[in-house]
Design a protein that fits this description.
This protein is α+β, with helices and mostly antiparallel strands. Helix content is 51%, strand content 7%. Strand 10 and strand 11 (102-105) form a beta hairpin.
């Protein structure tokens, strides 16, 4: 029955004798739908007719004693208080009474000051069990209760920080990146970008206990000296000792100004795990700037744990020549850092020089790529501008990747490896702008080596130029080519679009939204699509006025359209057979 609401809180719904255990009453009050039922003892109960699980009508369930069972998925609820006895989420209950033989309900939502806290607790439980449907519903409910989406974004990073065995995972940078979506996803629609971070936080941490933390250690009164001690402990892989110092500093109330240099500096000493620790560090402080420093005590120890546990790739034999060259230029680092930049952007570089440097980064020998960085520093180019030129070279790398590699069981590298060349270059740009530590210049050489080394993944048509489509195109046509898995068409179309319109809001929104639309399946692929798309547009803006301004966006579009491999079971079995049966290590092209 439909009932009109007025100023009186109690709503008449039926005669008392019309409601029996087998004949409930359903009342529709705008968006609210109530079920009025009678239990086996004859007591009346009113509750939300929509099962909190998936919304099916509870009035079509059955009552035994004081328990209502939803007929659709067998969830069970206590009629007295709405608590879920089998399943996940409670159902709302409402006051009911009988006056002069008529059943009445009070449909007003009861005041509940603890609703947000209980919702956050249920969200945490759902994350731990990886119940994605419940995570989505709790997210929407919390947004409806007025919880700021930024608070929910940091909750994904906090959950990941608490449970991840070896420190923060991709959930941390994605929690940062999705903040950029929020202006276009107001109210409950913010659940869509938020779910990307929750999915990443939940997937690797199902039923994991909390990671044990080191007891805080008083860092003393000198933040610089304490930071130096932490850096040494990270070098020695003394994770507990480094964490103790960090937690002690946070307990003393030290701020970003003191702590950020501590966590950046270890990233300068080695090339760590495809650049993940540096990328995470840059994103983490961006996130804390938005959501509040009070979350640092949870998030930063996990970030530090990730840095300590990272692979020091420059200790591998194939890095020996690089390490020797870096040691040779180390005496020049302080002088380079002290030089006032005469060229602050790529566009301001002398065209002939920058094109020669770019060519060395993309297709030169490793030594030529290394020397190109040293020459730029000798010429007074700003470190951030050098990082952007490396980023332009990384974009070319994505455009040159031989597509067959990604699906080849015999090759370890693929799309995700190559996207890191561009996202790491972007992190280097931000790192050298934020630090006062001259050793940050090592990052430029690391990034150049990273980009140049991946040239072995180039396809046979690597030197082909970007050719725009001859006819004008649209954002919709580009999107259709991406979804149709036509990377050549997509790149040609987006190149033409950029010539005609530039990187406008419509193109940026389409590219940004792609990873949210279930174009990909695995959370790790979605994470790379989100962060690569964001970097592509930011880097393209910094490359304006250069021949490479379109490359980052075209590179992202090629990646998006190329259907990156998501499942790797066949390759894992291939590698297992080679190792166990033949005693051979996985084949790598880089």
């Amino acid at each position: 029955m439909m009932v009109a609401m007025d100023e009186q809180p109690w709503v008449d719904v039926a005669a008392d004798d019309e409601i029996t255990p087998s004949s409930p009453c359903v009342v529709r009050l705008g968006r609210l739908q109530l079920a009025v039922l009678r239990d086996d003892d004859g007591h009346l109960h009113a509750l939300n007719n929509r099962c909190p699980h998936e919304g099916y009508p509870l009035a079509q369930g059955y009552v035994r004693g004081c328990t209502l069972t939803c007929a659709w998925h067998n969830f069970k609820f206590d009629l007295r208080d709405g608590q879920c006895l089998m399943g996940d989420e409670p159902v709302g209950v409402f006051p009911v009474r009988v006056c002069d033989g008529r059943v009445q309900v009070d449909p007003r939502e009861p005041a509940d000051e603890g609703a947000v806290e209980r919702g956050m607790a249920r969200l945490g439980s759902a994350l731990l069990e990886r119940k994605l449907g419940q995570i989505a519903r709790e997210t929407v409910r919390l947004l409806e209760l007025g919880v700021a989406p930024e608070r929910l974004a940091i909750e994904a990073a906090r959950f990941d920080a608490v449970h991840a065995d070896y420190g923060s995972t991709h959930a941390l940078p994605v929690a940062t990146d999705i903040l950029g979506y929020l202006p276009r996803y107001p109210g409950p629609s913010a659940a869509l970008p938020l779910m990307q971070a929750f999915d990443l936080a939940s997937e690797p941490n199902v039923r994991r206990p909390s990671r044990p933390l080191a007891e805080p250690e008083d860092p003393g009164d000198d933040p610089v000296a304490a930071g130096d001690r932490l850096r040494l402990r990270v070098r020695d892989e003394d994770g507990a000792g480094a964490e103790a110092l960090l937690r002690g500093a946070l307990a003393r109330g030290w701020s970003r100004a003191q702590i950020e240099p501590w966590l950046l500096a270890p990233c300068f000493d080695h090339f760590l795990s495809f650049g993940h620790p540096l990328i995470y560090t840059i994103k983490t402080f961006d996130l804390l700037e938005r959501v509040g420093w009070e979350h640092a005590e949870v998030v930063l120890p996990a970030l530090l744990c990730r840095t300590v546990s990272a692979t020091r790739e420059d200790t591998l034999p194939r890095w020996r020549s690089f390490v020797a060259k870096q040691a040779a230029v180390e005496p020049k680092v302080s002088a380079w850092w002290a030089t006032t930049p005469t060229t602050r952007t790529v566009a301001a570089m002398v065209p002939e020089q920058r094109e020669a440097w770019w060519s060395a980064l993309v297709q030169g020998h490793r030594d030529e790529a290394f020397d190109a960085i040293a020459q730029m520093l000798d010429h007074g180019c700003a470190p951030a501008a050098i990082a952007d030129l490396v980023g332009a070279a990384a974009a070319a790398r994505l455009l040159r990747l031989q597509l067959d590699h990604d699906g080849d069981d015999t090759v370890q590298e693929g799309w995700l490896d190559v996207t890191h060349t561009m996202t790491f270059a972007d992190a280097v740009h931000h790192a050298v702008e934020r630090t006062t530590d001259p050793t940050a210049l090592r990052l430029l050489f690391q990034s150049a080596r990273f980009v140049n080394n991946a040239r072995t993944l180039d396809g046979p048509d690597a030197t082909a130029q970007l050719l725009p489509s001859p006819a004008p195109t649209s954002v919709e046509a580009i999107r259709d080519s991406i979804l149709g898995r036509r990377p050549h068409d997509a790149v040609a179309q987006v190149t033409r679009y950029l010539i005609d319109h530039g990187a406008d809001d419509a193109l940026a929104a389409m590219c940004s939204d792609l990873p949210l639309q279930d174009v990909y399946t695995r959370p790790i692929v979605i994470a790379h699509a989100i962060k690569t798309g964001r970097v592509a547009f930011e880097l393209a803006a910094r490359l304006q006025g250069t021949p490479w301004a379109h490359l980052p966006i075209a590179a992202f579009v090629r990646f998006a359209a190329a259907a990156p491999r998501e499942r790797s079971v066949a390759r894992l079995v291939h590698e297992a057979e080679r190792l166990v049966v033949e005693g051979k290590v996985p084949r790598t092209l880089t």
